[in-house]
Amino acid sequence: MEVKGKICLVLSLFVAVCLVSATVSLARSERDPVGVCKLKCEEIRGAKQDEKQECKQTCERYHQDKQRREREGGQGKERGHTGGGSGAGSGQYNIVFADIERELREMVGKCHQSCQGSKGEQENPECFRTCMEQYSPEQGKRRGGGGGDTRSRQMGRQSGREFGKGQQLNNPYVFEDHHFTARLESEQGSVRVLQKFTDRSELFQGIGKYRVAILEAEPQTFVIPNHWDADSLLFVAKGEGTISLINTDSRQNHNIKRGDVFRVPAGISAYLINRHANEKLVLAKILHSISVPGELQTFVGVGAGNPESSFFNAFSNEILQAAFDIDRESLETLFGQQKQEQGMFKKATEEQIRAMSGKEESRTWPFGESKGPYNIYKNKPSVQNDYGNLHEVDSNDYPDLRDINVAFSLFNITQGSMAGPFYNTKTTTVFVVADGVGQFEMACPHLSEQTGGVIDTVPSYEKVSSQLRRGTVVVIPAGHPIVMEASGEQNLEVIGFGLNSDQNEWFPLAGRDNVMSQWEDEAMELTFGVPANEVQKVIQKQNKKLFFKGPVRRGRAFA
Amino acid sequence: MEVKGKICLVLSLFVAVCLVSATVSLARSERDPVGVCKLKCEEIRGAKQDEKQECKQTCERYHQDKQRREREGGQGKERGHTGGGSGAGSGQYNIVFADIERELREMVGKCHQSCQGSKGEQENPECFRTCMEQYSPEQGKRRGGGGGDTRSRQMGRQSGREFGKGQQLNNPYVFEDHHFTARLESEQGSVRVLQKFTDRSELFQGIGKYRVAILEAEPQTFVIPNHWDADSLLFVAKGEGTISLINTDSRQNHNIKRGDVFRVPAGISAYLINRHANEKLVLAKILHSISVPGELQTFVGVGAGNPESSFFNAFSNEILQAAFDIDRESLETLFGQQKQEQGMFKKATEEQIRAMSGKEESRTWPFGESKGPYNIYKNKPSVQNDYGNLHEVDSNDYPDLRDINVAFSLFNITQGSMAGPFYNTKTTTVFVVADGVGQFEMACPHLSEQTGGVIDTVPSYEKVSSQLRRGTVVVIPAGHPIVMEASGEQNLEVIGFGLNSDQNEWFPLAGRDNVMSQWEDEAMELTFGVPANEVQKVIQKQNKKLFFKGPVRRGRAFA
Amino acid sequence: MEVKGKICLVLSLFVAVCLVSATVSLARSERDPVGVCKLKCEEIRGAKQDEKQECKQTCERYHQDKQRREREGGQGKERGHTGGGSGAGSGQYNIVFADIERELREMVGKCHQSCQGSKGEQENPECFRTCMEQYSPEQGKRRGGGGGDTRSRQMGRQSGREFGKGQQLNNPYVFEDHHFTARLESEQGSVRVLQKFTDRSELFQGIGKYRVAILEAEPQTFVIPNHWDADSLLFVAKGEGTISLINTDSRQNHNIKRGDVFRVPAGISAYLINRHANEKLVLAKILHSISVPGELQTFVGVGAGNPESSFFNAFSNEILQAAFDIDRESLETLFGQQKQEQGMFKKATEEQIRAMSGKEESRTWPFGESKGPYNIYKNKPSVQNDYGNLHEVDSNDYPDLRDINVAFSLFNITQGSMAGPFYNTKTTTVFVVADGVGQFEMACPHLSEQTGGVIDTVPSYEKVSSQLRRGTVVVIPAGHPIVMEASGEQNLEVIGFGLNSDQNEWFPLAGRDNVMSQWEDEAMELTFGVPANEVQKVIQKQNKKLFFKGPVRRGRAFA
């Protein structure tokens, strides 16, 4: 108990790492969790020297336990961790370290969340300690041996269930709140950016240039002009606003509302207002970095709150005076302003809002082919029945999607219903839950395991699953079958960004138009090993397309 | 001798690694050969503790010897190993480890092959030990000092010759049987996939997304429906069959025969039959991964032999019941079948074959621009004479090649003849030997070496060469001159997949239309340092194009 | 002083590494500076054993001091080093090592340059030692604490100023002479290639396939035929010549002169003459590698000076005899020539020059869409005023630029004037100073720093700056604002290669057409926090476009 208290103490430090630190720290900790752990021991305020020493030993011990467990779990388990990625270009140990660290951070994140929410475990240390004990390596091992659902082979799945959340540890496909970092933030709004996909797993190398971000602006808020070194595709998840794109000799004002898809090209300076008096404006964005893969830089010339936040102020005074042909005093008036509290999100007056909205301007448009936003509700859903509907937009509908190679979809799954199983042929889809609660299941191939020295030369699959709630991000690689299910109480609305969407198609695996329905009778016989008419009977029973009545569940499933 | 016996024992364990283990193990062993070696010592059945201990010491010793040899060989030698790749992003030690490990594996592979063939060195331990001794570091060093052909500077070249195989150690451009891994396999057929190019050498970063695979199906065999997360370009090297591609509302059946090129887009579900009563169906494939670069996943819904091999079975029972709208029993009938021996390759009856073949269907084709397979023999050879012929297909002939950016060629070199020297301007070409025996030589630039502290500021080249036989895969980077030569007994047939083929051209370096024939006289004089007419006399003598009468060789050259 | 003398000795060894060693050595030293340092201690000629020992200890000590300084500098500083790149795929320590090593090399390079120029510090050891002391970690720390310009936060900036060069240490954006390596060189000319961008910093991953090279040929010089595994875009910075591209059945001769842009496709064999009797021919090149990203190979068939420098000589004699259908003697006549002094650059006679120039041939052109070189002065400047002018060429003007995805520009900034601030939306621009002296300033975003545990959630920027002189190469990433300024004595001419130029635009940030001029009044008020008319007054004052009168400077600024 003494040691576990210490573990708790040590681990609690990871909360800080996880929730407050910048990307660089995370990158380091993923590579040397023990080192970071020890460093954190040193930093405990008020701790005596021998307490720090014990803390460090706990770091070592925890790590060794963890590694032993990994080893005992055997190769198959390790493979399970890394999924299909054999980790070219990254040492074996890095993979193991990264796994441990990822697991640690997720454990801590969960306990943190369930014990309090916003300011760390200090508020309820007992809860946190108990929670962490549930997840400690020893416990994990014991629970892992408990069996139950023999089909599931992923470590920690049962424990996940016991924890009442239904999410797996070591599941790199799911991202929660704590995987986002606030890049810009003030009382009037925020831009939160999801961690780099490739920082999470090497499985995401194919989408390493893309990032996910969520912008939220309070009612009657102005977001000051800025440009990014990334192409941005935004979806208006909530609210209404006006976005203005600046060219050297013109400006484009566009009113945007819920359901609009809009592209802001890299480097184009833009400002934004939430016109609404009471409602938040929420944008879900895919950013496609154009400079360093997966890295994003924001450029703000003026107004972000303090002098260092203006790129103008990085230049010498002489240079600025010469450029603007003015004296130092005038320069100071504009660029030398003192700290402002509001940062990049400014409270605007009703008059200012009124003046800037309404006057939509659509002169010649130099950026890309489109003339403005595209509303996803403009066309009929591509699939619709009692159990849900699907809206889709691709580059044929909205040519601006072509450059960034992203397609867009919106799933609305009726409460108590489900979508799929289906898969996409080419895109890796990033799903962002816009509203509701539910869960998903994905079939994930993993490398074949040695069984007594003999290699299986058939593929095998395991289930990856998680709870879905507003803000959850799930990444589904190309080819992987998936089911999404809404809870019984609420519709589930999920935004889908299909990355690398060129020539993508999706195929249903059950219900109307499922791929099996086109097999020849002989193919059915040979594949199933039973007469074709028996197969037909089963696969023709379900006559809905894509959206179905959900399974009967005991209520606690979506607790 | 005692120690060498141990070395032999130790090394023999690498045979197992090389031939039976999965990719992950290989990846690990490439990074820590000593660690793997010791691990294997632990696993020797029936060995006593002190024997294991001695085994481990041998691992260390072998490694140290090896490293010392590398060091003594000096920097030039190390550069030779890595060719033109200076190894950005990979530590120096990783390169050295990888080299040692690669050499070890190739040594073992060769000895294994020459001493038995299929089941390991146990069958003839004396042969294997003697063979390995020939290659041990000490031996290698002695032989390496022997000189002989002063033009060749690549380590181990002489020893290669002595071994009677004509292949160089440390030659990352050549792949043999043991570089393939069976991904799907049963008595009725197999899909063998070549290791990732980038696992072999950093030189192959430019083609890291591509993989090579060989599918073989026995006569009258059905390959069950499946899809891959990779675009696939297949060439029918042997036999005839029918391939069926599945869409949601249609199916395309295509008869394929020797010489056909055909593309199966990523994610498209397909099944295949070998229609022939006696002949094998052999497909050579280039796969272009679309998700994780160089990683391939296969998706099989049902029929692969056991429940874990169905992606349907990764989903919860409740989910599947809801999706198919059926009860648990019906579900079990289809998806819960017990182990089948046949895996993904099923023996079909004559009636089943007959029912599924012949009815070629070509309705509207939603996948890409083409209407079906393209036969390489359809057009006349682009080059043809007594010494060989060359067929070529590019995206102008077959638009489906455009997306995957691959061009296709087939060299048929008459026995006793040769093709080249020539080079490709843009493609890196993957040659797969379809039939016959021969050899190739390539001129390979290497980094200039310090000679007494002075850097050469002219380029220099070394020969890379190897035997060719059915199944050998050779990678020739863009710009590198190459010659392929058929043995005196048999024609040599080589399939060429030109990767990154956009705007590629090939240029002959001798014979008709060679690039020198277009030089101005003054350019000849200045370059050769002799009068232009003397040059002309030599370069105009050979009047054949690309294919020439081969050199006079002593018979044992292709032993 | 004793220790510092040793440091000096040790560091002087890095000069050799920096200036004479091949890429592989550099790559290694970037990963283990201490190891390399110690290795170099071993190699000191004439040193006694205990001197070597002390040398090695100094290596350790220097490294530890350096690391401690890094640590004490805190996370913010480390971030500063790596700029926006969080270093995915590379360990923290590698980054730190690389930083130390880079800094070391730059320190040594500078001292080397200022103390002598060409053959090392032996010539003036006292100067070198004093110079190095200025830069030693202890000194750097002391100076760094000195403050002064509170706006600049980059370590060593003040010290840079004190050193009288105006360049920052740890500035990965600037490349000087010592970052080039001679690849081909003789008395008649040279090709110098800039280090790989990604060897310098992970920030340059997005342009990792591109390399910069400078070709210089003496008057009346012939460059023998060769091909590269890279697409080459060349700009004639000086002189005039004739370039000949070889096809199998044709040849294209093109006269080129100052201002010409020309593309040589990968793999196309070409030769070149400097036709002029007295003037050098200077080409600035962007090379786009097509095989291994960032790696370049040159292929020369014959004439480069010694037998190893001919790719023909890498083939067996039997093969060559068969290919050319000639006997061994004739073969020797052409390919077996003895060492020539001239290498790839040959002194040509007036008659040879005359025979090869003038006869421009423009038959059907099989390589790309263009018909020959494009002269940048052909069209009017896109911007021109008293303070400078800008010429631009993109793929609309010259279709050959499309494949290589590069745009081209030429800035001519009048003495005492400046260009910018401006930024490019999409390209990362590689500027090569063709003539003159000046300086640049860039606003560079850096990761927000922790201040007392609170994270800034607004961006912040720092100045990156350096002297510019002929041959300086500067890389400006997309989106980054930049100013270039000419000295008062001489016009500044800068060549700009815009990499990844598709759909790029540039925006002025001051003067006519600056992006702020299109903001609505309310946007100005909300952003600046002052009435719009006050803002307008300032931003409308400067009415020139892009080029402005430079700032008033004390003379020593460009010393």
UniProtKB/TrEMBL annotation, chains A, B, C:
This is Uncharacterized protein. It comes from Cichorium intybus (Chicory).
